[in-house]
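Our consortium's second objective concerns turning raw sequence data into structural hypotheses that experimental partners can test. To show how far this objective has progressed, the report includes one record in full. It was chosen at random from the queue rather than selected for favorable results. The single chain below, 244 residues long, was entered without modification.
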Amino acid sequence: MGKLDGKVAVITGATSGMALAGAKLFVDEGAHVFITGRRKDALDDAVKQVGRNVTGVQGDSADLGDLDRLFDTVKQEKGSIDVLWASAGVGKQSRLGEITEKDFHDAFWLNARGTLFTVQKALPLFNDGGSVLMTGSNASLRGYPNWSVYAASKAVLTAYARVWVSELRDRKIRVNVLTPGQVASPMLAEVMDEAAKAQFESVIPRREMGRPQEIASAALFLASDDSSYVNGMELVADGGTTVI
């Protein structure tokens, strides 16, 4: 018996990396999973990789019309949601003194605004007792140079969680933040060169990046009844980087 048997899960931004690993694991644990991505070719490939019990819905989590279409599809095909992993996000280095309006807009438009409306638009379909998790970043816990805008756009998620726990208490919907550290993923490869990766690895106690599957396992914990008494919390999965 799987930990998510009979459950319906929605994972945004799940065409690669941690969220794609999570989609595979959730399906292995018995869920039907809806995944999203902006690029059709990448989404189609992700659906093939998951292989079964998966529905791909193309869309941008910063686009409210795309979010409406996503949840309309969920309603038509499954009728309700048990787990929402709001994972779509973007990260870019921008140093104080050189930050542009576009840098700020891009980060907050998707990471802060997109996440909020993803959760809000999912609520009418949510079964009582469900689980919401959002992908944070340990950049919001340490002072990494050049990452202030990204860090700030992720820091708001813990504030969301604390307030939403109170607002959703009568429905027994749990809200938590999953905060990974440095994880070997396509997104990381896009924003860091080899020197930057080596620098990040040097501050991880085990001197090795996290793996997407390790974050997926933490997401499964928050999605399942294993974490039934965990609510309004930030689960940091960064190999101990932020405690040393």
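The partners drew two points from this record. The longest helix spans residues 101-122. The helical segments are 17-28, 40-50, 64-77, 101-122, 148-167, 186-191, 194-202, 212-223. Both points have been shared with the crystallography group to help prioritize constructs.
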